[in-house]
Amino acid sequence: xxxxxxxxxxxxxxxxxxxxxxxxxxxxxxxxxxxxxxxxxxxxxxxxxxxxxxxxxxxxxxxxxxxxxxxxxxxxxxxxxxxxxxxxxxxxxxxxxxxxxxxxxxxxxxxxxxxxxxxxxxxxxxxxxxxxxxxxxxxxxxxxxxxxxxxxxxxxxxxxxxxxxxxxxxxxxxxxxxxxxxxxxxxxxxxxxxxxxxxxxxxxxxxxxxxxxxxxxxxxxxxxxxxx
Length: 228
Description:
- Keywords: Iron, Metal-binding, Oxidoreductase, Peroxidase.
- Its cofactor is heme b.
- By secondary structure, this protein is α+β, with helices and mostly antiparallel strands.
- The protein contains 7 helices and 7 strands.
C-alpha cells in the first residue's frame, strides 16, 4: 500500500514529515548491546551511502509509564495472536510502521494539576482507567473516534513506544506503532490535527511537541528471503 507520510498541521502544532530510508527497531535490556549493534550496522554500510543517521536509546520509566506519568500502551492487545492480526498484513506477512519523535514539555507536566492532565489524556493518571466523561479533544476520544464510554475503535495498532532523552537536553516519547495497513495510522493522525470528522485537535499536543515522523514497511520473512 501507499505509505507516504504527509506533513500535518493543526491548531495545537505540526506533525512534520522527516522521511528516511532505513529504520532498525532493536530491543535489549542491556543498552550497551544496542550501541554495539548500531556500530556494526553503520560499519557495514557501503562507503558514502549514508548522508545522516540518528540512534535513539530508550529506557523503561516507572514500570512502563510515559514521562508524563501516564501508563503507556494501555489499549495494546494482550495476546500474541491478536497482536499479529492487528499488526501483520495477511497477504504479504509484513507490517506497516510509524515512528514519531515527541518532545515533552516537562515544566507543563510538572505544574499542571492531575485533573487537567487527565482531561487532556482521557484517563486517570494513577491506573490509566478511562474517564467515563471526557472531552472530544482528549487523546482517547481522538484515537477512538468519539468521547463515549468505551467507544468502539474503528482501527487498532500495536504500540511499541518508549521514553527517551535527558533533562539537560530534550526528553519525551519515541512513538512506534505497527499495523496491517497504513490507513490505521492515517485515521489517528488526521484526528489528532482536526483533519477528519471535525476540526478538533488532540489535547496531548498541549504537553508534547512532535518534531519528526514517517512511515515504514517491514517485509515479512518470505519477502526477506527474496533479498538473500
